[in-house]
Design goal:
120 residues, mainly alpha, Four Helix Bundle (Hemerythrin (Met), subunit A), 2 domains
Amino acid sequence: MEKDRLEYYRTILNGKLEELLNGAGKVVSGMSEKEENFPDPTDRASLETDRNFLLRVKDRERKLITKVNEALGRIDDGSFGVCELCGEDISEKRLEARPVTTCCIECKKEEEELEKARNT
């Protein structure tokens, strides 16, 4: 892949990483500040449900942070944009949609079909 395209994806990935890290910091500080005491069990249950949902979302974002860092590492080592399964180039269209991807669309479809077959 050309150097200017790699820098383009590096900029996108760094922007996404910054956005995710800023959001995580706000949530952590917000959760530690809001230690409220609810005498009503229903209110307490509602708060716990909201927190659990937020924590699940943040866990997904944590996993995405890892993928972004891995993609930045692939840019550095020269393997960005190459499918890890077949070794072919990943299309620009796919990289635009999901710059953290490690597989071309054909390999990803095949992987998902195998997973679906295992789960049925």
